[in-house]
Amino acid sequence: MRNLLDFLARHNHWFVFVLLEVISFVLLFHYNSYQGSVWFSSANAVSGKVYEWNSAVGQFFSLTEVNRQLTERNLYLEREVAQLTEQIERTTKDSTLVERMQQDVMKGFETIPAKVVSSSLDKANNFITINKGTADGVKKDMGVVSGTGVVGIVYLTSDHYSVVIPVLSQQSNISCSIKGRGYFGYLHWTGGSPEYAYIDDIPRHAHFKLGDYIITSGYSSVFPAGIIVGRIKHVYNSENGMSYRLKVTLSTDFARLRDVCVINDREMDKKLEILRAAEDSLKARE
Description:
- The chain contains 6 helices and 12 strands.
- Helix 2 (about 10-30) packs across helix 3 (about 35-60).
- About 40% of the residues lie in helices and about 25% in strands.
- It starts with a helix and ends with a helix.
- By secondary structure, it is an alpha+beta fold.
């Protein structure tokens, strides 16, 4: 103890110097807007790189599980394509129709691959940060998906990073439908387990069963129709007994989420312009 006190006494001027330097930097960046903005930008870039390195290490140790999930997903998609191809060929007697339909569905859409550098699961409004931004073509309100299903919607962008509002957020509200049934509603998350979300206001006369797939409806300008969201786990009656509430097992494993794709709909700007024009027209009539 005496040696420690002697050491502090001999070098006290260095400790005072460091303390004064810290105080001066805090005052400089806190009370000067230019220096503060420079510090904020630099800190964001540094923290983004740190998150990216940490995520790269996590991705390396989770490659086995990711490959297993992708293999299962590919097998499912191959079965779906084979069944649809057979059905269309049997109905139309045209073996080239399937290829033309696939080209038409993807026309106007392209994907921007990205990696998750940070995410949260335990908050009411979680966020995900990805390593692609405006320099890569990412814009606000673009949809984000993974190899197994829907992830969320881009909320904020910078040059090289973007923040995504995932399904696991009480701010999320994604239009979905029951595959092959035609009934639709809005997916929302109420907190708790990251494995489940809910769809309300499914009419009482709707016909469906447990295990049916929930997919994006295509009624918004964010996601094309048909992207997997999850499967029906349980059915509840609404509070007023006039509709159903569906508990959905999400197909995306947010705890293991590493690789995602941002959906770039080249026609989205035109769609949004039409929607805004319609809203402005309605407001003008009121």
